[in-house]
UniProtKB/TrEMBL annotation:
Protein name: S8 family serine peptidase
Residues in Peptidase S8/S53 domain copies: 134-432
This protein's UniProt keywords: Hydrolase, Protease, Serine protease
Entry's family note: Belongs to the peptidase S8 family.
Cited InterPro entries: Peptidase_S8/S53_dom, Peptidase_S8/S53_dom_sf, Peptidase_S8_Asp-AS, Peptidase_S8_Ser-AS, Peptidase_S8_subtilisin-like, Peptidase_S8_subtilisin-rel
Any single Pfam family the record assigns to this protein: Peptidase_S8
Active site residues according to the UniProt entry: 143 (charge relay system), 183 (charge relay system), 381 (charge relay system)
Keyword Hydrolase: yes
Native organism: Rhodopseudomonas telluris
Positions of transmembrane segments: none
Length: 446
């Protein structure tokens, strides 16, 4: 009995792929004209993604559809079992399109402290007094979608929101900002703790109902396409000299893979979790070089309290783009600076950058109540957007043109607060607890 496997492949430029990439979602007819490898069934709902030359040194100009030499498409193949997935079809390489999931917490312990306590720990008042509040900085929430009315009820005001530069993936009928209250709304709330004037962008990559995905319908392909859209609206304009209206773009990713069994088998060259050359990891590098501050959650496979989906595996648990050298990866601690037991520990999976997490930030506090009254904002899912908000606050006065993401992340690591005398990097806290006030002082923003 064969199984149907969702995959990504890379094809050379064809007019149908150029047309699909230009049209975006809704270009099904164009893709049907594409010359395909044998035994490959294309997913017409997935618009072709231009990859330029396909290497990690791809220039932004090469990502224009007319200039791109290669394109990624999504589709399906049949295999007897996962171990029989071929490396390529007709010379076209096959890459994994694994299921992805939000990093909600395990366990049911009550919240410790609230959003005001987090603000006090981060020095948000000090930041605000110096104009570091996220004004004219965009934060893309790559998640389940945002519910603005819930945020308005919790904040007492409507947050800044950019519907025009948000994204609606295939199969999703909710308008930007009007998704069910869920994990993405929690993340949006947590960004605004340190950056109340940041502008939210809605990228509901985890709410897709595209065919062939996981039970929730979310696979890496949706994150891939969402990131490609962000590059279109930001990075190309940024490289062209400032067509963007924003001072900076922060990209929050509170999701990942819980276990290697979600991916291609070990040793397959198209695997995602330990492969810097997977097309998604390559696109992450392009976005980072273009000035986007990409933030990922470490995950919830910590030794003391792993999520059940970790299947008891707690070593090398930071995987895929969450372990990329081009992103900032966040572990979680409570407001008393104690690491939460579900926070994944480093070093990350072999093949990726080993010293992950980079930093630790606050989680498990009373905040958005997106999951019901009295429930905590929890998991490294909450630590990640709290940190993203801190970065957005700093970007109010730190241009990525003058302080690129790699430099800013280095400053954040250097200024982190050490825990209980720990110096340097360790697998529990990374380089320490994020201290945006200290980072601002190092950057001369005091």
């Amino acid at each position: 009995m064969t199984i149907k496997v969702s995959v990504l492949t890379i094809l050379g430029s064809q007019q149908s792929l150029v047309a699909s990439a230009k049209a975006g979602i809704g270009a099904e007819a164009a893709l049907q004209q594409t010359r395909l490898p044998p035994d490959f069934e294309i997913d017409p709902s997935f618009a072709a993604v231009p990859l330029g030359s396909g290497g990690r040194d791809t220039r932004l100009s090469q990502l224009q559809p007319d200039q791109s030499a290669q394109f990624a498409v999504r589709g399906f193949i049949e295999a007897e079992d996962p171990s029989q997935i071929p490396v390529s079809l007709g010379g076209a390489p096959l890459f994994a399109d694994p299921a992805i999931a939000p990093f909600i917490t395990c366990g049911g312990t009550p919240p410790l402290g609230n959003a005001a306590d987090v603000q006090a720990k981060l020095g948000v008042r000090w930041l605000a007094e110096r104009g570091l509040d996220g004004s004219e900085v965009a934060v893309a929430i790559m998640d389940t979608g945002i519910n603005l009315q819930h945020l308005r009820g919790k904040l007492g005001r409507m947050p800044r929101f950019d519907a025009a530069n948000s994204w609606q993936p295939p199969g999703n009928t909710s308008a930007p900002g009007h998704h069910p209250v869920d994990h993405g709304t929690m993340c949006a709330y947590d960004v605004l703790i340190a950056a109340p004037n940041a502008t939210l962008l809605d990228y509901p990559i985890l709410s897709s109902t595209a065919p062939g995905g996981s039970i929730s319908g979310a696979t890496l392909a949706m994150a891939f396409q969402g990131l490609a859209q962000l590059i279109t609206v930001w990075a190309v304009a940024f490289a062209a000299g400032g067509a963007s209206r924003y001072k900076g773009l922060v990209i929050n990713n509170s999701w990942g893979i819980f276990h290697p069994s979600w991916d291609f088998p070990a040793g397959h060259p198209g695997r995602y979790i330990d492969n810097p050359n997977h097309p998604f990891n390559g696109l992450v590098s392009v976005m980072a070089r273009a000035g986007g501050d990409i933030v990922f959650a470490a995950g919830n496979c910590g030794r003391e309290c792993p999520d059940g989906r970790c299947q008891t595996r707690t070593s090398e648990a930071i995987m895929g783009a969450n372990a990329s050298a081009d992103v900032l990866t966040l572990a979680g601690c409570d407001i008393q600076d104690a690491r939460v037991g579900y926070s994944s520990q480093g070093p990350s999976i072999a093949g990726m950058f080993p010293q992950k997490p980079d930093l630790t930030c606050y989680t498990h506090f009373l905040g958005s109540e997106a999951f019901g009254a009295g429930t905590p904002d929890s998991g490294t899912s909450a630590a990640c957007p709290v940190a993203a908000g801190c970065i957005a606050a700093l970007r109010t006065r730190l241009s990525p043109a003058h302080v690129p993401p790699a430099n800013l992340f280095a400053q954040l690591r250097a200024s982190a607060r050490h825990v209980r005398g720990n110096q340097g990097w360790n697998g529990d806290y990374g380089h320490g607890i994020l201290d945006p006030e200290a980072a601002a002082q190092i950057a001369g923003l005091s």
